[in-house]
Amino acid sequence: MNKFEKNVQSKNNDVIDSGLAFVVGFASLTVIYIIAQVFGIVAG
Q: Any stretches that span the bilayer, and where are they (predicted)?
């Protein structure tokens, strides 16, 4: 066992962190899409 396995900084589950990152990324892209659609409707 190396020194990094003995001194772990974060004991969180990686699945939870990955899921949270996916949700945040998806939500931000959704917001960008909605803003673009609003601009398209207003300009049209």
A: 20-43
Please give the model's pTM, rounded to 2 decimal places. 0.67
Q: How far apart are CA 20 and CA 22, in angstroms?
A: 5
Q: Which two tokens stand for residue 13?
A: 């589950």
Q: How far apart are alpha carbons 25 and 39 in whole angstroms?
A: 22
Looking at every residue in the chain, the average pLDDT score rounds to: 91
pLDDT over 80 at 10, yes or no = no
The structure tokens 């990955």 sit at 18
